[in-house]
Amino acid sequence: MFIIRWRFCSMRNIIYMLFFIFIVLMFCRATAYSAEPPEMRIGITLSGKALELSFDGGYEIMNLNTGASLQLSPGRYKLVFSQGGIKILDRAGDSCGVFKGPLYLAPISSQPSEESFCIHNAVYGSEYRGALEISASGGEVKAINVLDLESYLRAVVPEEMPSSWGNYGGMEALKSQAVAARSFALYNQGLQRHDGYHLCDAQHCQYYGGKSKETDNTDSAVNQTCGEVLTYNGSVIEPHYCASNGGYTELPQNVWSSALPYYKSVHDPYDDPDNPLGLNNYIAHRYSTWEASIPLKSLGSILAAGGYGNPGDVKRIYVASTYESGRVEELRVEGTHRDVSLRKLDARSALGLRSQLYNVRAESEPRVWIASAVNNIEKKECFPELEGKWVASGYTINKMLTGEEFSVLGDGVKGEVPCLGYIFSGQGWGHAVGLSQNGAYNRSRAGHSYRDILSFYYPGAQITTCY
Ligand SMILES: [Zn+2]
Known about the structure:
22% of the residues lie in helices and 31% in strands.
């Protein structure tokens, strides 16, 4: 009996032991897997179809097709599309050969993270860390910068938020931007946002300007939040952010279509142009309030060009419905041909408005227009800033420009230009979902931590350290 009991206990212990070992192994595996920042592939926007590249002795170019080094000495080269491959020209214009590729410029020094190379015709930067994958397709040479996520972020945060904010109480805002940008990169790494690389270096993804854009403040914001991302139920969230919410955050389904559970639509006193908290160091965004004037005559063609249908002559424009935040759900345009309904983001996109938080009124004050007819091509432009200004008319007479007046440039005289339009008055710049950069700045200046800032703008998300 004793022996049986002993054996039973032993077996249970063995099972416990095996289970324990299994858990430890799983933990070690997870830790090992996520100990390093993941590798990012960033498409570099080039001006022109070639790649203008220079590198020093810390780099070499490999041909990924053959696995061999190209044995190119350090210097400056121009890589052009040729015969379906990549032709490399040296500084004198002499050919160093044509390679099928892809080619790979990789750091070979003992401290690869400290090495950098130059792309002289990159649109958004010049000096880059990491490696460069170079391929040829569609008649042009393409460049993909391959580097670890943390190095990537050092050149994203200063492009997305002013580094100087760190000198005026905004370090916590820079840290909240670092976490949002890191989450954006990781969330989109798994999506097919681009063919062959994870993110581009333009506004479509996040601006990335390479090593030359790095600053001490933003490096510090990235380092102090190393590996931290926003998660919901264990997965990285889709983190939207924008310049200024005009005083009220928004739900993603009120701007685009899909609802996400970690967003809320609430008043944001730290980005409200009225400064309701009476903060003495409050900073209003430069577009915390804005106005846009759209001439009536342009409206039909703007809407037709945007694919919303041509209303004909516009009779009336009005806000048909709004969300709780005050953002416009539907803008109606009544025309002689048809009525056009612009929903959610449509009006912003079609009319080029800074935000979806606006009201609209008919332009009651006539404005100054200038009409010209040069070579029989008529052109009319509205110059509201000329209202009340004196101009020389003819040889001797000075006259004041007032509403419905017009002046004529060029060689033809045209009649009075009718002056009717609509004025959109709004608040904020951007979609207002998630982090408001201006709101984060004011919160940081008021003493909020980056964790406080993120929990306000992503109320359902948690901060998780993923490596
Ligand atoms: Zn992109």
